[in-house]
Specification:
homodimer, alpha+beta, 12 strands
Chain lengths: ~190, ~190
Amino acid sequence: MSRVVDRGSLRFVFLLVAAIAADASAHCSGSGSPLVRNISDIPQGNFGRGGFAHATIAGAVSHGMKEVEVWLQTFSPGTHTPIHRHSCEEVFVVLKGKGTLLLGSSSFRDPGTPQEFHIYANSTFSIPVNDPHQVLNTDETEDLQLLVVISRPPVKVFIYEDWNMHHTAAKLKFPYYWDEECFHVKDEL
Amino acid sequence: MSRVVDRGSLRFVFLLVAAIAADASAHCSGSGSPLVRNISDIPQGNFGRGGFAHATIAGAVSHGMKEVEVWLQTFSPGTHTPIHRHSCEEVFVVLKGKGTLLLGSSSFRDPGTPQEFHIYANSTFSIPVNDPHQVLNTDETEDLQLLVVISRPPVKVFIYEDWNMHHTAAKLKFPYYWDEECFHVKDEL
């Protein structure tokens, strides 16, 4: 049984797909962004992680930054980053809430038992380059909101399944979740 | 006329000078800082500029950062940065207040008449590399508070007297005011 699609329907589908693609990449072009941006208008995503929100405030693939990138991230109670490492510098400023930083070592074959640090609103901390770490909202009621600064974007992240996984077994995720969409658009240009 | 200073007095003066020097450089050593820091405890200075406060939240000469540096700056009504440029990237996040960004061009022999941008709480903006710029608190009552991110610290700043000064005449200030104290301590090590 065959089905005939008329030219009008095909044109509609084409325009629909083009419109969706254009919308998805609207925030990917550095030249298209105004110089001063309202942070509330910057697209946020959860990238499949419930209770998580990420916005790239100033980014490499989204705004043409070459040396630094700034993120705004919100973790609802009980949520956390994966255990991961990267060779870039990273500075956190805690805007709201409280939680825990777990910090492993890069000096042995695996991260080992991580050191535990309390993080809280109006605190700041930097992750030593290449040290595996995890940021957790350990509060029961309040969101944890962070401003995150990294060097040498876009970030190249190595993800660990647990603290005993060998460093060499950690899996590279590149481009990282929030860079994927714009990275693809860039590849096509 | 000669004056005799006894050994006890000399020892007191020596200890006093040593104590002042130790206090002044207490925040200069990266290894001496705790990993998680309360931003309110980080030393602030005005560096001779009335109505201005600067704190280096994570810095090169103060905390051993190599690729990024983060500042917290507060401008009281009517105060502003000098007109200046730098070759590093710079991202601003406006935490409180409102004001004006003036942005000149690096394409001609002088910055020329700057473009004017309104900046406001919860907005973000990046300065194009090497473009002369000035940030002003143009509000009459409220402080302007900014989180500032730069790449390749410590910052090398070229200062302009006005918007018509040739780029080649702008004066290099290095180390910059808030890096001077720790920079000297570092030189001695």
